[in-house]
Amino acid sequence: MEIPPSSPEGSERSPQSKELVTSNTGSTLCMSSRSESVWTSASRSKWDIYHKPVIVLSVGAAVFLFGTVITSLSCFLTQNEKVYKMSGPAFLSLGLMLLVCGLVWIPIIRKKQKQRQKSQFLQSLKSFFFNR
């Protein structure tokens, strides 16, 4: 087993200073934060902001249209009429639910963006006046 040579600088430092040098609490806090946008000031594109509700909206519209087709098939085809009558409304309701969720999600994101812009503006004003 090899013992590393001790440097004179390391022995002169107090245990508290070693802890301060090796401590990464600020950077770990920043990296482990749930919302990175609070810590970074980089602006995001519209797609980065709205991609999840747009995807939910699109899938909801597709499932709703599929449910409409399945339900209309029950009127024209008499072969598997019970299957179409049971699965058609299920797809209709699932698609409508996703469609409404996507439509409601977009205004919520807009409201959050406005609040975030206001809070950043107020923080910059506060730092401007109190850091003099």
Low-confidence blocks of residues: 27-34
What oligomeric state do the depicted chains represent? single chain
Distance between the terminal alpha carbons, to the nearest Å?
Answer: 57 Å
What is the average per-residue confidence, as pLDDT, rounded to a whole number? 77
**Proportion of beta-strand residues:** under 5%
Number of helices: 5
* Net shape: rod-shaped
Largest sheet: none
Order of helices and strands: HHHHH
Give the beta-strand count. Answer: 0
Going by helix content, strand content and strand pairing, the class is mainly alpha
State the helical fraction: over 70%
Gyration radius, rounded: 29 Å
Description:
With 132 residues, this protein is an all-alpha fold. The chain has a domain at 47-108. 77% of the residues lie in helices and 0% in strands. It contains five helices and no strands. It has helices spanning 8-12, 15-22, 25-32, 46-76, 81-130. Helix 4 runs antiparallel to helix 5. 6% of the residues are buried. Mean pLDDT is 77; it is low at 27-34.
Q: What descriptive keywords fit this protein?
A:
single chain, 132 residues, mainly alpha, 5 helices, 77% helix, 0% strand, rod-shaped
